């Protein structure tokens, strides 16, 4: 029987779970301590949820005075459910993605997307609170695992877009590539119903930040058996920036009925970004090579899945044979 082993846990999983446990525990301890100290004060917050820790949590009013909170708030969870969900997301997400990227890139990706998401979320929150005259909103904590949740959804869409997810014996069946859009719709509906910027704003921000980084800026080593845009003098593994494959176009994250309209918008934004020098344009050669790499990765993953399925089937067959043999021995 498989069992959990901390030693065999991927390094990125250890790092992120340690950060999650440390930051969230410190916040809880400081909240309890603050409430105990202020018990005699009738104006003190009545519950732990009303107490904030501005030097660990992302508070719009005070974030500028504690700039490190843009990083610590990534791992700041204040409820048991959100802490449990973040633990599951980090454990599964980092463990899977590290097999493709390695420890450093996974940690870098989570921190980069999380910090930028928190930064822009605070800016949006401050502007929104000013226009609405919402003074109380300036003291509401933001941040949390919503940033790396959507960051991982974008990665999974890139790695295994055609993988099917089957739940409740086929009652729910969808492809991985549709999961980011479904999630964005759900969080947007939630924010619309409760008339709040959270979680819609950080979700949308983390989605686009993660996509832009992976599409245009992520540096990766290229499989030497595939054609590459440039090689070093020794013919070793080449380094590329971004992913120009057709399957990873932004429009591919959205339903087919919207693609003709969104393509016009996204292409216009892309051309504007290129003209402003914000991103480097993809040439036909790079796009073709990216498509080849995406196809190669898909074939490799399909082969791995088939091997796993065959292994599981073989184990089941062995168990069934053992059961039959035991019954025959018992009857004799």
Automatic annotation (TrEMBL):
Localization annotation: Membrane
Keywords recorded for this protein, A-Z: Coiled coil, Membrane, Transmembrane, Transmembrane helix
Positions of transmembrane segments: 64-97, 109-130, 142-160, 172-190, 196-214
InterPro entries hit by this protein: Rhomboid-like_sf, TMEM115/Pdh1/Rbl19
One GO CC annotation: membrane
Residues forming coiled coils: 287-314
Pfam family name, one: DUF1751
Topology versus the membrane: Multi-pass membrane protein
Protein known as: Transmembrane protein
GO BP terms in the entry: retrograde vesicle-mediated transport, Golgi to endoplasmic reticulum
């Amino acid at each position: 029987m498989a069992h959990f082993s901390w030693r065999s846990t991927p390094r990125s999983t250890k790092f992120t779970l340690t950060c999650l446990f440390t930051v969230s525990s410190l916040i809880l301890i400081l909240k309890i301590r603050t409430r105990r100290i202020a018990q005699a004060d009738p104006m003190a917050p009545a519950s732990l949820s009303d107490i904030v820790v501005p030097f660990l949590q992302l508070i719009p009013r005070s974030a500028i005075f504690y700039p490190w909170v843009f990083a610590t708030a990534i791992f700041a969870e204040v409820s048991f459910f959100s802490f449990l969900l973040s633990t599951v997301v980090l454990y599964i997400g980092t463990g899977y993605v590290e097999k493709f990227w390695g420890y450093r890139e996974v940690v870098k990706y989570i921190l980069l997307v999380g910090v930028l998401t928190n930064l822009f979320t605070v800016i949006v929150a401050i502007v929104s609170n000013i226009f609405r005259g919402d003074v109380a909103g300036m003291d509401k904590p933001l941040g949390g695992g919503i940033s790396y949740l959507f960051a991982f959804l974008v990665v999974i869409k890139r790695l295994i877009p055609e993988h099917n997810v089957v739940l409740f014996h086929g009652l729910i069946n969808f492809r991985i590539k549709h999961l980011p859009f479904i999630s964005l719709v759900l969080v947007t509906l939630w924010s619309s119903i409760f008339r709040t910027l959270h979680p819609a704003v950080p979700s949308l921000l983390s989605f686009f930040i993660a996509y832009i980084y992976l599409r245009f800026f992520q540096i990766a080593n290229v499989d030497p058996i595939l054609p590459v845009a440039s090689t070093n003098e020794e013919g070793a593994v080449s380094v590329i920036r971004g992913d120009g494959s057709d399957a990873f176009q932004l429009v591919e994250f959205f339903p087919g009925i919207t693609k003709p309209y969104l393509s016009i918008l996204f292409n216009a934004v892309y051309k504007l970004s290129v003209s402003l020098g914000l991103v480097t344009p993809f040439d036909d050669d790079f796009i073709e090579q990216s498509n080849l790499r995406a196809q190669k990765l898909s074939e490799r993953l399909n082969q791995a899945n088939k091997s796993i399925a065959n292994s599981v089937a073989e184990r089941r067959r062995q168990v069934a044979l053992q059961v039959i043999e035991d019954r025959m021995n018992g009857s004799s």
